[in-house]
Amino acid sequence: MGSKNKLKRFRENESFANVIQPSREEIIDNNYTLKGNWNKDFFKNDNPIVLELGCGKGEYSVAMAQANPNKNFIGIDIKGARFWRGAKTALEEGMHNVGFIRTQIELIDLIFAQNEVDEIWITFPDPQIKYKRTKHRLTNSEFLQKYKKILKPDGVVNLKTDSEFMHGYTLGLIHGEGHEVIHSNHDVYKNVYSPKEVVGIQTFYEKQYLEKGKPITYIQFKIK
């Protein structure tokens, strides 16, 4: 994507009512105004809140919101030029149950309050295979504890990935730390028991992986 296109998208994002772009300073003071108030001030309803972390182009968040009008969805990514597409689509289609936040995922527990989130989706994250990149894996122990802070007691995390490494790493960590695996699958499109929201929605990159014959893995779990 050219720099002119990026700048255009950044400018458009600033005008989108469904895009929130807080400064790091606003967040790290631990007094972020929307923290604990997402239902009341942003969505203006009491419906469950579902997050998609590293939402990319935002198509998964938008598709889930279309399929679940009684839930609120928030896509989170640091690259606003990417989720511009999802935000624009949601506005064009008059959707009020999906929004986007441009921020770093490591700040998530300063953006949402305890027990404010019902569900988390992590779709095709960078597996960060090198050992020195472990701290950046979105399912490492530190991230899981951040998710636990904001999830309701019965809240769940979903990991959908084409990376067998990421799948295996996460599964091993879940078992090792005593978390609860609800569903685990090494190839969701060959399993008749795969949840419909897992196989019924495909991201731009997922379609490319499937065309190459790469299996898509999935884990749903609760953090204890």
In brief:
The protein is of the alpha/beta class and 224 residues long.
What does this structure look like?
Keywords: Methyltransferase, S-adenosyl-L-methionine, Transferase, tRNA processing. InterPro entries: SAM-dependent_MTases_sf, tRNA_(Gua-N-7)_MeTrfase_Trmb, tRNA_methyltr_TrmB_bact. S-adenosyl-L-methionine binds at residues 52, 77, 126. The chain has an 8-stranded mixed β-sheet with strand order 1-4-3-2-5-6-8-7, sandwiched between helices. It has 10 helices and 8 strands. The mean pLDDT is 93. The radius of gyration is 17 Å and the shape is globular. The protein is an alpha/beta fold. Helix 1 (3-15) crosses helix 5 (80-92).
Structure characteristics:
single chain, 224 residues, alpha/beta, eight-stranded mixed sheet, 38% helix, 21% strand
Task: State the shape.
Answer: globular
- How are strands sequenced across the largest beta sheet? 1-4-3-2-5-6-8-7
Low-confidence stretches: none
Task: Quote the distance from N terminus to C terminus.
Answer: 42 Å
What's the number of helices? Answer: 10
Tell me the total number of β-strands: 8
Radius of gyration: 17 Å
How can the largest sheet be summarized?
Answer: 8 strands, mixed
Give the H and E element order: HEHHEHEHEHEHEHEHHE
Structural class: alpha/beta
**What is the mean pLDDT?**
93
Beta content comes to 15-25%
The share of residues in helices is: 25-40%
